User: Fold this.
Amino acid sequence: MKKQDFIKAVAAAAGLSQDAVAKGLGSMIDVITAELKKGGEVNITGFGNFKVSERAARNGVNPRTGEKIKIAATKTPVFRAGKTLKEAVK
Assistant:
């Protein structure tokens, strides 16, 4: 399901306009992104957790040349599904 399909489905289920759902979804994404940028977490009970995971610097190998390279430390967003979501998917 793509973003536009998701917006249509939520609008139909909630009885809202697609514009209102799109603005709400956009705002939700903006708030989650801003909180993760600050290093915080977002916990949506029954759905899941969004947080930032830090990966340490490490050595790697270029698969094409076999040359050893250094991979810099990085931060990545992580989503962990909540219990209710996990049970619904089973």
The CA atoms of residues 59 and 70 lie 5 Å apart. The chain has two domains: 1-38, 41-90.
